[in-house]
Structure formats: structure tokens, C-alpha cells
Amino acid sequence: METASQSHLLRRDRASIAVPTACVLAVGGFLVAVLSGMYVENPLGAILARSLVTLVVCWPLGLVIGLVLDRLFREHASKQTSQMEQEDLSAEEAGGDAEILDESEGELDSSGVDVAVASASDSA
Question: 14, 69, 90, 102: which sits with the fewest CB atoms below 10 Å from its CB?
């Protein structure tokens, strides 16, 4: 059974980048229109009118671009996920071939050099 926090996480995973992309493109177009209108010294009314038209035109274009990018990112993510799952399965199959080394015959001192451990029978 799905709890409220789990459903919130599921909705969060489905968040699209389309709307933020549309907003960024619209505000960018608005700023370019305002700055270019000010640069050529157009009247303030004309600058604002043209800037608002640019804002209204750029938002749907940004939405379409964002939807395309969202679909591309989701396809790429699902492709990467399936590829990683296949690699995990092949690694599990090859996992029995790993060689285990016994390091009890020697100890490493602080310099990382392999030093043989002297036993009581070797010193006598």
C-alpha cells in the first residue's frame, strides 16, 4: 500500500523540465527585448509592448523545447538503467571466478612493505 510520502516521491520523480525551460526562455527573450529597445532609445511604451509580445511568443517555444529535452533525458536515463542492470547481471554470473588471496602469511608495516612474520619455531 502506498503512503502519502511515497506518492509524493513518485510525483517528484516525474517532474518535468519543460516548464522551467519555458520560463527561462521567456524571461530571456523579455530581457533581450527590453535591453535592445533601450539601446536604440525606443519609447518606453513601445519597449514594454514588444517585450511582452516576445514573452508571450517565447514561452510556448520554450515549453516545446523543454518537452523534447525531457523526453530525451528520460529515454537516456532508462537506457542507462537497463544497461547498468545488464552489467550487474553479467557481473553476478562472473562473480564465482574471483580469486581470494590469503594475506595471513605476511603483515604490512606502516610503509606498505610486505614483512614476513617470524614464528617461534623460526627463531629457535
Answer: 102
Q: Does 116 reside within a domain?
A: no
Asked whether the CA dihedral 49, 55, 60, 65 is positive or negative, the reply is positive
Domain holding 66, by residue range, is 8-95
Encode burial over 87-122: b for 16+ CB neighbours within 10 A, e otherwise.
eeeeeeeeeeeeeeeeeeeeeeeeeeeeeeeeeeee
Rounded to two decimals, the pTM is: 0.57
Q: Looking at the domain assignment, is residue 104 inside a domain?
A: no
pLDDT recorded at residue 36: 96
Q: Quote the cell numbers at residue 107.
A: 603483515
pLDDT digits (tens, 9 = 90+) for 43-80: 999 999 999 999 999 999 999 999 999 999 999 999 99
